[in-house]
Write a structure and sequence with these properties.
The protein has 353 residues and is an alpha+beta fold. The protein is built from 6 helices and 16 strands. The strands form 4 sheets. Strands 1, 5, 6, 11, 14 and 16 form a 6-stranded antiparallel β-sheet that branches. Strands 4, 7, 10, 12, 13 and 15 form a 6-stranded antiparallel β-sheet that branches. The N terminus and C terminus are likely disordered.
């Protein structure tokens, strides 16, 4: 009888049905820029432009044609001003793209938060905008020491302990059934709808509608899972193998803002503080007699392969952006430069009216 009870308990723990937990998925107050990584070899600016904890080096997947000095510049992070605002195809005009971006915003209540500006079309047409991280947040990046130049040191604890993008940086591990999602957001009476995008360990993407932003000031939008079953005796309880299955996780994929055709277009401003989850644990930590992973190392090998795969996927896009940035003109022509413009371009500035 005792053995049956233990098996049922293990089944419930393995299915993640008995224990609920609350974690911060992403906290934008942690993503302020605190180190400087030059954008090119002549960059002498000292203002911080990257976030130390979340720096990723994509130079390791670049081709052999790049020089060591160029590879040293191939670093990016989840710094707030590095995030992308991507409009839907019909709204993606040059005018709208250049007026849609993110900024660090000082809040008296929360410190640094993320501010986003989106320029929707003025015509009465449905449109939406994604506010996304500059790369898909890695789930298998070990903790490491990172210096002021963005150089990433050796892994501190390998695959034991928290990963680098956990603890409010975009990843929550050991997630079973999600019960609730909450967003701290600052509204400015816009009638637009807000969605949160979540990615799981199976590569599935889920878009959750949180509500509308037609309020003034800070507010908490909450989504409660309508299919969540509170009574354990009503749940489907099964036995699942405990090892060597990887720990389920959820990572942040961004926001989506929906503007209805009947609502006002043009500039839209919004601020975000954080995203939080309430969820059942997928696996309950127990006092096991044998260290399975220490003996076999199956999960470490598997997660190392996934880490390399994640790096290859986001690195190619970042390399293309790096090359485009290096070929971009650094001193755009301005006819108001006067005599200097006249000498270089043969342009005579108009006389004052």
């Amino acid at each position: 009888m005792k053995r049956i009870i233990i098996l049922v308990a293990i089944a419930a723990f393995s299915a993640g049905m008995l224990v609920a937990n609350e974690s911060v998925l992403i906290d934008f107050s942690l993503l302020s820029a605190d180190i400087r990584i030059p954008v090119d070899e002549n960059d002498m600016d000292t203002a911080p432009n990257q976030n130390r904890r979340t720096v990723m080096d994509f130079g390791q997947v670049a081709g052999a044609s790049f020089t060591p000095s160029q590879r040293a510049l191939m670093r990016t992070s989840l710094a707030i001003e590095s995030w992308d605002v991507v409009l839907n195809s019909s709204a993606r005009t040059i005018h709208n793209i250049t007026r849609s971006y993110t900024r660090e915003a000082p809040s008296r209540r929360f410190g640094t938060v993320m501010g986003a500006r989106v320029h929707f079309p003025l015509i009465p047409a449905f449109s939406h905008a994604f506010i996304r991280p500059p790369f898909e947040i890695p789930a298998y990046e070990p903790m490491a020491d990172i210096d002021d130049q963005g150089n990433i040191g050796a892994a501190v604890n390998g695959f034991t302990g928290p990963m680098r993008f956990e603890e409010g940086f975009g990843v929550v591990r050991n997630v079973g059934t999600i019960r609730s999602v909450a967003v701290n957001v600052y509204g400015l009476n816009f009638p637009h709808g807000l969605n949160v995008i979540l990615l799981d360990h199976m590569g599935n993407e889920r878009t959750i509608f949180m509500g509308h932003l037609n309020f003034d000031g800070w507010g908490e939008l909450v989504w409660n899972n309508p299919q969540y079953i509170f009574e354990v005796r009503h749940r489907d309880v099964r036995l699942f193998p405990l090892y060597p299955h990887s720990m389920p996780f959820v990572k942040f994929g961004g926001f989506r803002v929906d503007r209805d055709a009947a609502n006002v277009g043009g500039d839209f401003i919004v601020y975000f503080r954080d995203v939080r989850l309430i969820y059942d644990l997928a696996v309950l930590d127990t006092d096991r007699d044998i260290d399975d992973e220490g003996l076999w190392g199956i999960i470490s090998d598997r997660e190392m392969a996934r880490r390399i795969h994640e790096m290859e996927r986001f690195g190619q896009q970042q390399i293309l952006r790096f090359v485009e940035g290096q070929t971009q003109a650094r001193s755009p022509w301005n006819p108001l430069h006067g005599a200097d413009s006249q000498e270089r371009f043969g342009f005579t500035p108009p006389a004052d009216q």
